[in-house]
Amino acid sequence: MTERTGLVTIHGNPLTLLGPALKAGDKAPDFSLLTNDLAPATLADYAGQALALVSVPSLDTPVCDMETRRFNTEAAKLGEGVKILTISMDLPFAQKRWCGAAGIDKVQTLSDHREANFGLNYGVLIKELRLLARAVFVVDRAGVLTYVEIVPEVTQEPFYGGVLAALTKAAG
Description:
Layout: E1 3-10, E2 13-18, E3 32-34, E4 40-42, E5 50-55, H1 62-75, E6 82-88, H2 92-102, E7 108-111, H3 117-122, E8 125-126, E9 131-132, E10 135-139, E11 145-150, H4 160-171
Parallel strand pairs: 5-6, 6-7
Antiparallel strand pairs: 1-2, 2-8, 3-4, 5-10, 8-9, 10-11
């Protein structure tokens, strides 16, 4: 397993990411996640759609809460065939509870808790914490990554403008 250091910190403390370093132009790796109802979800389930794959450490933290709420608001403005998926290691039950309490209805939350499959395939699994790093991957309708942002400090938000511009372009 590839280990990468020097990319992310939490409160200034360095962390190790497991998995490959993906870049724009790469084919989006597959994943095997769980929906809030424990149904399997894979990349193939979203074929032909533009996607923002947003990984967060935990929905039950202030920055992840704020980020997911912001993406939910933005998702309401996007057209058909565009999806924002927020992926964390939270249990599906916790994700479902959080979405209900937060009124999240446009972003779909998916859990990587079982196999850390997304984290390992997308290179965002934090070795020291077994949580996902804060990152965004935009996938176009052909299944190609068009934008990759790994947020250097886990406690900070992503660059929403860049993500939304890339997602709009990928949907075009």
